[in-house]
Amino acid sequence: MRIGGLLPVSLSDFPGRVAAVVFTQGCNFRCPFCHNGELIPMHPPAHTQMSEDDLFVTLSERATRLDGVMVTGGEPTLQPDLSGFLTRVRALGLETGIETNGSRPDVLAELISGRLLDFIAMDIKAPLETYPRLCGVDFPTEPICESIALIAESGIEHQFRTTHVPALLSETDLDAIRLLVPTGSPHVIQPFIPEHALDPKLREV
Fold this sequence. Notes:
Layout: E1 3-10, E2 19-24, H1 52-62, E3 68-72, H2 82-90, E4 95-100, H3 105-113, E5 119-123, H4 131-135, H5 142-152, E6 157-164, H6 171-178, E7 187-191, H7 200-203
Helix pairs in contact: 3-5
């Protein structure tokens, strides 16, 4: 798996757990407000990457002090060996979670059916009609809707998240996003941190 970074301990990324956060390399979106722009390229310089074996040495050393591992990105579902990676994490006795943009419901379905996830966080970036503007690419919204439904019906602990970028999302937009969240599913509005936004114009806000 392409690994762009590791946060050894987090108290906020995996709700209710002390977790390590693994950052996968590569994303199919180009969200202008993204604060992890260095993780977007699928093939960055080799020296910026962490080997999977080195990662698991660190996780093994910390396993007794962790509850789980949260896999984020980039976009984790682009990794062809994600299921094997999660299986390997579970072998350490740790819970597993992913944060996804919802673009690949087929991968989510495989992970859910394989019982490889204890938690799923999905970003809902915008009302459907303005999704391309917020995700930075011309992407169909049908997979987004499919992922939302799949996650909500999975029986797995989950959370939908929206980053509120005032320059890009109005209060009316936020109301429209809330309508996309299935009844009973948690939805968190996250603050926008402009300093490292992919679009330099947003850093000036």
